[in-house]
Amino acid sequence: MGKRVAVVLAGCGVFDGSEIHEASAALVHLSRGGAEVKIFAPNIEQRDVVNHLKGSPAEEKRNVLVESARLARGNIQDLAELKASEFDAVIFPGGFGVAKNLCSWAVDGKNCTVNEHVNSTLQAFHGAKKPIGLCCISPVLAAKVFPGCEVTVGQDKNVDGRFPDAETASAIAELGCKHICKNVNESHVDKANKIVTTCAFMCKAPLHEIFDGIGTMVQEVLKLA
């Protein structure tokens, strides 16, 4: 019987929601791994809306759950309804929506607050010793909620110009967590906390390498489950 995995989205689109390629990659790898997947998102207003063509703010309001439904093909539930007891693992794709809608990292950095339903979801899976998978910027959620855990967002230096957000690793360390340097096609497993992370688009890499890295994260999550 396949593992039951919850996937939590943060909207639709890299600059104000979930990174579409990351969400899709996670879902493809979960499908390949025989997992039974249900998708969730918080029923809240987005922090902002970005015109992805121009890269500039748009004067409109959007709802995170409604926008996430685009990626879920309409088959999605309010995050408030997620029960950890019904799943074997949870996965959070990345995208600026994680740092804007699921928490306030985009504005407050290491001093951010985490959405109450995101926090309770993470705590519930962690408390039940069920694996948590995170990619791109979403490992900061674990760093904020679980001091002392180990995560990766890639490298802690901008190696060859491929890791322009390398300072995120320092902020994670300031939270009392251990940042583990990994390449884009790798993931890190914090065995004590059952947290699996990979850097995805935190690295400037070809799409297939990001896809493969997310694959390693999904595979490790399913192993732990």
UniProtKB/TrEMBL annotation:
Xref: SUPFAM superfamilies: Class I glutamine amidotransferase-like (SSF52317)
Query: Which InterPro entries does UniProt cross-reference here?
Result: Class_I_gatase-like
Q: Give the CDD domains listed for this entry.
A: GATase1_ES1
User: Can you tell which superkingdom this protein's organism belongs to?
Assistant: Eukaryota
**Annotated protein name in UniProt:** GAL3A protein
The organism named in the record is Mohoua ochrocephala
Q: What is the lineage of its organism?
A: Eukaryota, Metazoa, Chordata, Craniata, Vertebrata
Q: Which gene encodes it?
A: Gatd3a_0
